[in-house]
User: What shape does this take?
Amino acid sequence: MFQKHENLFIGVIFLSLFIFEGICQNLINVNQQNLHSNTLRNGLNKQSLKWDGLERTYLIYKPSLYNKNKPLPLVILLHGGGGTGTAMLNLTQGGFNKIAEREGFIVVYPDGIEKQWNDGREGMQYRAHKENIDDIGFISILIDNLANQLNIDKTRVYVAGISNGALMAHRIGCELSEKVTAIAMIAGAIPKNKTYSTIPKKLVPIIIINGTDDPLIPWKGGKIGFKSNIRYRGEVISTPDTVKFWIAINKCSSKPTITYEPDKDKNDGTIARKEVYISDENGAEVILYAIEGGGHTWPGGKQYLPEKIIGKTNRDIDANEIIWEFFKKQVNQKVEND
Assistant: This one.
């Protein structure tokens, strides 16, 4: 009798954890989708293209100073799992559009299939993974189509993403390096069991912005998801090991220059540590912003869910500005295998 009650008790706890995690994930999905609805503002349009038998959609922002006779850089922003291009626009609070208007570049917010990117995690049950959706091909053809429609500077094509989008940005850096100048990963790391090659054809400068207290993609590596880990979402290597991977790719020094950003908001419970790794051989950079105390969030962006679910958002830095300042210094290197 005691054993029966014990088993029932354990079952109730297990079910409760499953329900709790499901509620939390649904909240993330809903909030990523519905952070404001008035997103089709001036200069922003929704477009689509056909690729691999699927209609692929994306939002595009073209600055008012666009001149077809002058090539402009392209920034591609990848949403997190359960999100959309619109959600990414709102998570960043339209910051990249404002910078694009000031600095002169084109911004694109593509949509993953059923709100997921095929980032190369093994054993996933999302359609993008199960059907092996060709998201690398989609991003490649998207760049080509935009270059045909608009005057894109092909030596300055950049990709940034958060969470599932960050893992996808890493895959793009590995498999599409000949078309991408630099990448940014926010709240993400390298999948532990990858289904793709990790040998880029050329150098790929990278900036990584991760919270040390991220409850979903752990700083120290391991299983993705809440502590209950009822639903398998794959595993990642640690943030330090992700940095080491790109240090090796870009032939950077393993000894960084370390500084701390001014603690402008002493109430956000976080501080930003900056580590800069540079190659003496080729000048390529790997930059890490370790948000000490930070969560699964975009610094300076929307606190899209309560801290108890996703952790804290750093207010000392603006990730939009940080990423663009990094990107605009980078110009595509020659592909080594050309």
About this structure: The radius of gyration is 20 Å.
